[in-house]
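Before the break, one more example. Copy the sequence into your notebook; we will annotate it together after we see the structure.
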Amino acid sequence: MKSFIVILVGLLLSCSGVQQSRNSELTAEYYGVVEVRKGGAYIDEATLRQLAKQDNKTHYIVFSDDMCGGCTYLKEKLRERGWIDKVHFLNLDDKWVQELAGIMDIKALPTMVVQLKKEKGTLYFEGSAEIMMYLVRNL
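Here is what the structure looks like once it is written out:
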């Protein structure tokens, strides 16, 4: 009986693993309005509005989607270089992002919009290769 308990405890310990960080997202939505969004790779509308008000810094904003292969590739390459925190991603599955993409005439994914500091203008880049080339030269 003692050996059975020792084996059982050994099996339980061998099956336990190290907890890994998750890339999931928590979203609380009431009556069609997103109230809280935490975690995940995408920013919400309130965060984008705050970024737009900060004109002392260049902002890199990417229109993206989870089903987009180029978007996934871009995120992987940004993580490898340690630049993932310098680029903000918008989820095209969100209705407000779809409306914004329509207003800005976004036709392809991924598309990066660069808001230059001190209101010097806005740049657009389509495709993960073009986006990475710009970021390599400017980050």
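The chain has one domain: 41-138. The longest strand covers residues 33-39. Try to locate both features in your own notes.
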